[in-house]
Amino acid sequence: MNAQFKKGVLELIVLESVRQRDMYGYELVEEVSKVVNVNEGTIYPLLKRLTNEHYFETYLRESTEGPPRKYYHVTAAGILYRDSLEKEWMELSERVWKFLKQNISDEGG
Amino acid sequence: MNAQFKKGVLELIVLESVRQRDMYGYELVEEVSKVVNVNEGTIYPLLKRLTNEHYFETYLRESTEGPPRKYYHVTAAGILYRDSLEKEWMELSERVWKFLKQNISDEGG
DNA sequence: CCAACTACTTGGCAATGTCAAGTACTAATT
DNA sequence: AATTAGTACTTGACATTGCCAAGTAGTTGG
Lengths: 109, 109
Description:
The structure is a homodimer.
Chain A: H1 3-6, H2 9-20, E1 23-24, H3 25-33, H4 40-52, E2 56-61, E3 69-74, H5 76-101, H6 104-108
Antiparallel strand pairs in A: 1-3, 2-3
The first copy, chain A, binds a DNA duplex through helix 1, helix 3 and helix 4.
């Protein structure tokens, strides 16, 4: 998968995932990968950025399967940001789709 | 517009634009901007990259309105690359759309 | 103690969009 | 002919963000 296509979209997918329910980083790597393949080195720095920008709050919870997990919870500001990202993404992807479709007739002709 | 969303997509839009008809850089800035806003500092380096990778060939043509224009013409390899990019873009955007839509019911409830 | 799995962190790097400044040609104005 | 504006191309420095790789650390089982 072209890494460039992912830029920015991952942020939206992470925000939307965490909006559904609080999640921890390692779990998010697998969740997000269902939509776009991604690895730890991408997810953890992204989570840190979003937390620094107050879109997420975190809390630790122990696990019986390993070290404690750092859970992420989306804030009100995070939801607003998510909504604006979603709007931008939908507008962009619709414009791109229309642009690509509008020219399909050229290929057939 | 979130600059990150544009990454990679611009390449596809430029390839598709030039596929329709040979175009020169300055013209492409305006053409591409109909889909996603973009400026010269983005388009010219992108055209150079795509030319270095043999997806474009170029030729000069004089203009009555200013300095000569460098026209870009897409190669066979460029078309193949465009097609693979289009496929990837469509697959990604469909997955993202489905992911976002599938959870709309959460918001309504 | 070691191996394997879970979980988080981080340094260095690659790719690419943006800003800003510069070069150069044509045409219109003074 | 000098100035200004519009067209057209180039490039250096920078910011953002995804990826690889290596490291730290807890739990379970040998």
